[in-house]
Amino acid sequence: NSIKELPGVKNYEVVYPRRLHPLHKREVKDPGQQEKFETELKYEMTVNGKIAVLYLKKNKGLLAPGYTETYYNSTGKEVTTSPQIMDDCYYQGHIINEKLSDASISTCRGLRGYFSQGDQKYFIEPLSPTNQDEQEHALFKHDPDEQKTNSNCGMDDILWVPEIHQNAVPSATSLVKSKDQKAWEQNKYIEYFLVLDNGEFKKYNQDQEEIRKRVFEMVNYINMLYKKLNTHVALIGMEIWNDKDKIKISPNASLTLENFAKWRGGVLLRRKRHDVAQLITASEFSGTTVGLAFTSTMCSPYHSVGIVQDHSHNMLSVAGTMAHEMGHNFGMFHDTYACKCPSTVCVMDRALSFYIPTDFSSCSRVSYEKFLEDKLSNCLFNVPLPTDIISTPICGNQLIEMGEDCDCGTPEECTNVCCDAKTCKIKANFQCAVGKCCEKCRFKKAGEVCRPAKDECDLLEMCDGKSGLCPDDRFQVNGFPCQNGKGYCLMGMCPTLEEQCTELWGPGTQVADKSCFSRNEGGSSYGYCRKVDDTRIPCKANDAMCGKLFCNGGSDYLLWKGRIITFLTCKTFEPEDSSQEISIVANGTKCGENKVCINAECVDVERAYQSANCSSKCKGHAVCDHELQCQCKEGWAPPDCDGSSMVFNFSIVVGVLFPVAVIFVVVAIVTRYQSTRGKQKEVQRPLSTTDTGPHKQKRKPQTVKTVQPQEFVILSLSCPDQLAVISTQQCFTNPSH
């Protein structure tokens, strides 16, 4: 056969992967589709002169529930569809018997993707894509030197200073450190949206199916990487600008990022819920930049975005850049020499285009864990319910789906002793396999705390004794005083003017004098309560504290594009994007005694939340939560909140008091026995022959009293392990005494 040229590849070896026997019953697609894909696969091939077996497991979580695709028709109108795409041919795995190995492979038409064997990385792709077994494939090593283009992430070159944004998180987040199960250990879920510009559409011959395949392969690889951080990345939507670009894409990466963030916040987020969005562009950025993202902004409605240049024919090189920019959204920074990387190169290495990352460094893991302690990361814990997952349930994909009690991976991977890995059911005679209220495969007692209160605006949650799962997170009733009277709780938060100033301007910022807020009565660009189109509506005098936010001090650096306005000791900000409300005092902020801001009005707390005396309506020892439902106080077990939740310590109490009681009985028996011995008999003593004086005394002879045997009975008891059963005993008078 003639040698086929592969773009960007100088040398490759021809291999013929042979599929081994099926591991599980096949799954058939919808009627009319002929391809069949098994849950697990094994392929045998020659790699570097030796036989290697590639183990693959289907990645059923590639697409999120509600996945959609958007394109534009000939009139420029957006068309959104929910295609019934089954992500059945995307797999992850490893080389069997290799300690350091992973794989991200598509089997749609032949094998295409990546796998590693030790420190060596390989790429494989079909030379003539078909569905036939043992077809020709090109296998080539990953050689960074051949692909080196001196391309980098542009984050260090832009104006945003990571440290300032990191410190700009409200100070209240220091209260969020939970005694609960660490967020790092919990499963996290990212709903990921991708936008491809018009240049991408043209680059791939306007072939939407070809674009979809490339995108799915890249997301499959990103998913594989983030699973190492207990984070599942699922594609929830894709938009292709097939008619024209919806924003100005500039060689200036910073400007393009700002434009995309504005479009995403004002357009995309309003019609499609997601956690993070990235723009993939065929355009080139200035200098060596191939990617850019905001830092520590995951879940943010305005800045949870990144942009990536499609800089390589090798889709995994581009996927590595996508994973890198997402890492910045998670609060990760570029690796330094002080960071420990478990592989040749890690995701947050500054050089992007020619290295294929396979893991995260020690620094990235620390940064991510720190980010997870912030309340801004809440969107990561919205794991879809089994009923929301549209894919066919697959036992062994570590995602609990309809009909499954648990899913601990394949039998080889599973470490959960309560879960049957073959059926994804709880093992016989066990009650549970997962959840914070599940311990040693049994439900924890009702009343045991499973989620402690994070701060004064949070409520603890307790097990109900009927489920292994901890109840949903509940918060203190809205309007509950917090931060020493500086604010009132709202949906688990304690919004204050101080925190909002710190978030906007960084550490050292203070709330401006009340005289600054009086400017809100003017209705000018630097003082108003709300906007209607382009008209600024002034505040009423009573509402002045609920309009524009005025601060003093802090940094003059901003993450948002707009105009900084200062006068005297008053400082405010007018964003360029009118949809951004970051410069307006937040809802729920205290504006007076027993008053809060709601929609730029200062109203009574009761009018805002209607929660007065709610707790007095609760039975037993309960309080109202943010939804005006009754929740048990600590120490009182659900559901009635009347029984003490300390009952779960009863066995401990018995274990301590019972041995003490037994010892007390034994001591009492011995004491009585000794007392009885002393009175067993009274012996007649003779008169003393010694005269003590002229008078002589005679004593009466003493009579011997016979004591009948006394019986002491201790009932046979079930004693703790450290004590023996005390049997029936008798004490008899010894006649010789």
How would you characterize the overall build of this protein?
- The protein is an alpha+beta fold and 737 residues long.
- Among the domains are: 1-385, Collagenase (Catalytic Domain), CATH 3.40.390; 481-609, no CATH class.
- The strands form 13 sheets. Strands 1-13-12-11-10-9-6-5-2 form a 9-stranded antiparallel beta sheet, with helices on one face. Strands 8-7-16-15-17-19-18-14 form an 8-stranded mixed beta sheet, with helices on both faces.
- The model is unreliable at 23-35, 157-181, 646-656 and 680-737 (pLDDT under 50).
- The chain crosses the membrane at residues 647-671.
N- to C-terminal distance: 116 Å
Helicity, as a percent range: 10-25%
SSE-based structural type: alpha+beta
Q: Which segments are poorly predicted (pLDDT under 50) over 5 or more consecutive residues? A: 23-35, 157-181, 646-656, 680-737
Counting H and I runs of at least 4 residues, what is the number of helices? 11
Whole-number mean pLDDT: 77
Annotation, overall tally of beta strands: 40
Tell me the CATH topology of the domain at 1-385. Collagenase (Catalytic Domain)
Strand fraction? 15-25%
CATH arch. level architecture of the domain at 1-385: 3-Layer(aba) Sandwich
* Main β sheet profile: 9 strands, antiparallel
Domain EGF-like: 610-642
GO biological process, one term: proteolysis
Transmembrane segments: 647-671
Active site: 325
